[in-house]
Design goal:
heterodimer; A: mainly alpha; Helix Hairpins; 83% helix; B: 6 strands
Chain lengths: 243, 138
């Protein structure tokens, strides 16, 4: 059963046990051993393949050589016949027969090597695919183990500090509050900066005798004097005059 | 391959840079498997956890638990999570036991820069997910 299918079955039954059940240590060891064995088999098959391919090449060369020999002796037998050396030609024909028998053996061996090469290549391909699949399944099981064990560690750590994991809404509220606090602090700092900056500038202007602050006392005195009652000898304004 | 903590040396600084300078702190969590907790300034209540198996490095953010889901809207929530899954950049919704999580998976030998990018995306996505899914929660 694939790890994914096993997970689906477990999730239907009991969520709490997933961490342990999928990744029971013994099963992981078995899986890992299977991967080690499969890798070993592939390595061995690769070694065998190299050897058989070398033999296949050797037999191909031998076949070529024997074919050449057979052709050469046949030509020699023909030459002997042409020179009326029938007995010699017969002897040479015997040699050709031996070579051809050897050629048959080599051709059979070559065919066997070719079949072995194809079989070994197929075996290696299958074992490689199996290793990839084992690796994937093991990765899935181990990742499941990691996330469940990490979650347990995190929960234990939170319990250990005596605090409680916040609910989603509490977390969000706390983050919003932090953002608002920060925004308020930034605004306050900005205002303070502006105020301090502007007061400092006004003080420097006043010191230089520039601006409204510079002669405020004189201005106030002028305003008070303007409100003072006019002296008795000055004529009063006629009714209807604009104020 | 060394320990996760060794592999993730310098992750705090790189993640901080990926999050426009927010302070990032990383602490190991004791337990049976190696787990690192990543705390991000202003998002302390939504930490990211990094763990690993032989083949993968996983960044996880715990969103909510089964008990927090409004029973009447559970199916709708599950369908929404499935629908959203392809759209969420670099992260996938999942469930570990009773915990709904957002996960980012990387190769076991991932570089610190890649993990930092994943954590930044995961943290942003988790924040968005909490905001968007809060209507399904108690």
């Amino acid at each position: 059963m694939s790890v994914l299918r096993k997970l689906v079955t477990l999730m239907r039954s009991s969520v709490r046990e997933i961490g342990e059940s999928v990744v029971d240590a013994n099963a992981i060891r078995v899986y890992e051993q299977e991967i080690v064995d499969a890798r070993h088999n592939v390595a061995q098959a690769r070694g065998d393949l190299t050897m058989v391919m070398a033999k296949e090449m050797q037999s191909a060369r031998e076949i070529e050589r024997l074919r050449g020999e057979a052709a050469r002796f046949e030509t020699l037998a023909l030459e002997a016949l042409n020179k009326n050396e029938a007995a010699l030609a017969e002897e040479v024909a015997g040699r050709v027969a031996e070579i051809e028998a050897e050629l048959d053996e080599q051709t059979k061996a070559h065919a066997t090597y070719a079949i072995q090469v194809a079989k070994l290549k197929e075996l290696i391909k299958g074992a490689d695919a199996k290793i990839r699949e084992y690796d994937r399944q093991l990765a899935m099981a181990k990742t499941t183990e990691s996330v469940y064990r990490a979650t347990r560690s995190i929960a234990d750590s939170v319990d250990g500090t005596g605090s409680k994991l916040l609910s989603a809404k509490e977390s969000l509220e706390r983050i919003r509050q932090r953002h608002e606090d920060l925004a308020d602090r930034m605004l306050a700092a900005e205002q303070l900066d502006r105020e301090i900056g502007s007061k400092a500038l006004e003080a420097r202007l006043a010191a230089a005798g520039i601006g409204a602050e510079a002669d405020r006392k004189a201005q106030i005195m002028a305003r008070i004097r303007a409100r003072q009652a006019p002296p008795a000898n000055e004529p009063a304004a006629a009714p209807g005059d604009p104020a | 391959m060394g320990t996760l903590q060794e592999q993730m040396r310098g992750l705090d600084g790189v993640t901080s840079a990926a999050l426009s300078g927010l302070d990032v702190q990383i602490h190991p969590i004791p337990g049976a498997v190696e787990v690192l907790q990543v705390c991000i300034e202003q998002r302390e209540s939504l930490p990211i956890y990094i763990t690993c198996s032989d083949s993968q490095l996983l960044c996880m953010c715990y969103l909510w638990t089964e008990e927090e889901v409004l029973p009447a809207r559970r199916t709708e929530l599950l369908e929404t999570l499935l629908d959203l899954n392809p759209s969420v950049p670099l992260s996938s919704f999942g469930r570990i036991g009773k915990h709904y999580v957002l996960l980012g998976a990387l190769a076991r030998n991932a570089r610190v820069e890649d993990v930092a990018q994943d954590i930044a995306a995961l943290s942003d996505n988790a924040l968005d997910a909490l905001d968007a899914m809060s209507e399904f929660l108690k």
